[in-house]
Amino acid sequence: MNEIALDAMDVDILNCLQKDSSLSNQDLAQKVHTSAPTCLRRIKRLREAGLIERQIAVLNPQALAQAIGHGLTAIVEVTLDRQSAEELERFEARVVQDEAVQQCYRVSPGPDFVLVVHTAHMPAYQALVQRLLTADANVRNVKAFFSVKRSKFGAELPLHSV
């Protein structure tokens, strides 16, 4: 990742993209009051600097459940038996590879990790627990909370003009 100095236009571009990354370059340039080529160059620079990781579509789990069947979202607290840097990194590297793990946070104090996982149903969740947690001899404690409704989901970081 390269270090980058941000100006007000960069922050405006990032704010717009966080709200709607499907904007055409022309529409985005118009929103931030610049030319399309300038906007494209700035976005490229922001990507190269690692400020924009990727652009994704955020799906609605309730609507998907109606369309293709119910899903299960769980927030899972995991405490390891040994918390050396190597053990924490080993566990983290393993869980982030699993497609059911949507988010992984190393936290303190309390558990060592908080995971947000999404599976098709309870048997798939049980398979995930077996695959990632039960089979790991270093996992001491697991506490899961199952979502009954998603009231808010966001990925926007609060940015203020510079």
Tell me what you see in this structure:
By secondary structure, this protein is an alpha+beta fold. Helices cover 40% and strands 19% of the residues. It has helices at 8-19, 25-31, 36-48, 61-68, 85-96, 122-134, and strands at residues 72-80, 101-106, 113-119, 139-146. α2 crosses α3.
Pick out its properties.
Alpha-Beta Plaits; single chain; 162 residues; 4-stranded antiparallel sheet
Number of helices: 6
Strand order, biggest sheet?
2-3-1-4
CATH architecture verdict of the largest domain: 2-Layer Sandwich
Structural class by secondary-structure content: alpha+beta
What's the pLDDT, averaged over the residues? 92
Our count of domains comes out at 2
Strand residues, percent: 15-25%
SSE layout:
Elements: H1 8-19, H2 25-31, H3 36-48, H4 61-68, E1 72-80, H5 85-96, E2 101-106, E3 113-119, H6 122-134, E4 139-146
Antiparallel strand pairs: 1-3, 1-4, 2-3
Helix pairs in contact: 2-3
Characterize this entry briefly:
This protein has helices spanning 8-19, 25-31, 36-48, 61-68, 85-96, 122-134; strands at 72-80, 101-106, 113-119, 139-146. The chain is of the alpha+beta class and 162 residues long.
